[in-house]
Amino acid sequence: DRQTLVAVLQFLRRSNLRESEEILRREARLLGDDLGGNVATVATSSPGVAAVAAVPPGKGEARGTAASVPPLGGNPGKWGPRVLLAASGLSLMLGDKGAVVVEDQPDVSAVLSAYNQQGDPTLYEEYYSSLKHFIECSLDCHRAELSQLFYPLFVHMYLELVYNQHESEAKSFFERFHGDQECYYQDDLRVLSSLTKKEHMKGNETMLDFRTSKFVLRISRDSYQLLKRHLQEKQNNQIWNIVQEHLYIDIFDGMPRSKQQIDAMVGSLAGEAKREANKAKVFFGLLKEPEFDVPLDDEDEEGENEEGKPKKKKPKKDNVGSKSKKQDPNAPPQNRIPLPELKDSDKLDKVMNMKEAARRVRLGPECLPSICFYTFLNAYQGLTAVDITDDSSMIVGGFADSTVRVWSVTPKKLRSVKTAADLSLIDKESDDVLERIMDEKTASELKILYGHSGPVYGTSFSPDRNYLLSCSEDGTVRLWSLQTFTCLVGYKGHNYPVWDTQFSPYGYYFVSGGHDRVARLWATDHYQPLRIFAGHLADVTCTRFHPNSNYIATGSADRTIRLWDVLNGNCVRIFTGHKGPIHSLAFSPNGRFLATGATDGRVLLWDIGHGLMVGELKGHTDTIYALRFSRDGEILASGSMDNTVRLWDAVKAFEDLETDDFTTATGHINLPENSQDLLLGTYMTKSTPVVHLHFTRRNLLLAAGAYSSQ
Fold it and tell me: Taking a C-beta distance cutoff of 8 angstroms, is the pair 510, 458 a contact?
């Protein structure tokens, strides 16, 4: 197609790719004077490609108007039957189908120029209402799917009117149709309603999100054909242009989805995830535990002597220490990412852990855990974060007055190392040197750590209990020593508030997420981040390491959860379905499942391997800030701002899941309507929102929150 060639040659010339231009021209036997001016879209009969003709320079890019829109033929399976060359910030590539548009990360003005249109502003309401009428009158099976178009079309038509300065039309369009949108878009619509002039759109983030990330709709081929036929017959080009330009329609073959199936999955800022996004292989299995010997006798005196050295060197393998010898088939290679070596003290801790595990209570519907609630009384400083050490010996609170407070919850007081002068007097050779270096005089139940200059939103103990992380509104993450109770490092990478931080289950690595919409992976001995995970369209509100430390889950205010690969920084899963910002994440102990909680009061359960939603737990009436699986994964505990802790039967929730190939391919999820059968118990506090949950090594459930007196 000669015209397409002309367009590509022009693009090459503009990009100063002279050599490629020469080669292509020789191949196509085109002369130099065939080129000139800008590029505009015109009608063509070839399916799958927009033909391109030259227009005089200075006329800007004219987008396909009513006269010049090509017929909507072509192969609908390849997304979109034609390609529009609009907006700078687009580059052209030659594919097997001719010209394909690739979008770079554009700047605002380039993004907005895509709204240069010549549609009649007074007809927008008519276009929209005729489409609405058509969808509402279509068959039930198609209606649910096509109704997904209402919201993205509404937003783009409104923005197009505003951009072209038809303010009164925009206002009346908004007034007339904003009430028809689904309730979970209310917050977005509130932001949208404040954009009433072209100037407002310039620096607006919401605006940019909407323009740069195509809104994804998953629709069956039948419904899509129906829509296309309707728009063709009606010559409704304005709407068709928006569908082409701003929406990504993920077409699947098979039965259309029901209203329930669609409602379960939609609601995020940019629609659903493309099916491709959840296809990558994820190694969700656990790493093999290192093998070492565990003394079998029940002499707890050894256990009490925490600082003692492990006595045995590694004689014949004993029983308990060597868990399963077999490598989990779904586990990542042991050396996929470098993990820190186990120190002697870590091995001792593992031995203690195994002894405790031997006495662990097996939980289930017949045997629920006891719950011990730590209430922060008179927390007028404003409690904003809590964490509890793995062995449940210490609890930390982050506060709005920018302090971090650490309590001992065992009879052992918190002791710091003596001053340098006192240390020089100690006999270094004595057996109990580790005891002698601790200063008994300053021992206390509470230590306060000063250093942040804003509310502390996240705290995390290292697995070996030597360090503590805290992140704050001041944009820093701080690493504190629990030997000296002083700040060791301030990590500066985020320029805005940091909402959450967490240590890897193996220590050394940690993750942080904040208002700048990215999560960062750090190592304690590097002051720069090792990985930056970018992709969310709004704040990253919570972060969690997978039990094998190869993956990180992030929850965001864009109402999606993403799973990132630590090795290469890729996003390997995108989960949509929550109707509000995500505030809590928990991986099941076997690494196969993820539970997420949000401001919509629902807990959603995800199968990581298949990339599917497998359950929905309804019951809470407010934001869920805490989720935790019991040590063997039989029970999921959730804690909420509605002042309750709820226990759910995780075994039942995950048994006989339908994850056949069809479901995986099309996302036809059938959520069982039995969340009440899975609810094992609800426990009210008097007036304390639950902000943290923790299962001890013996499966006692600890919960924490600050009493609020309203």
Answer: no
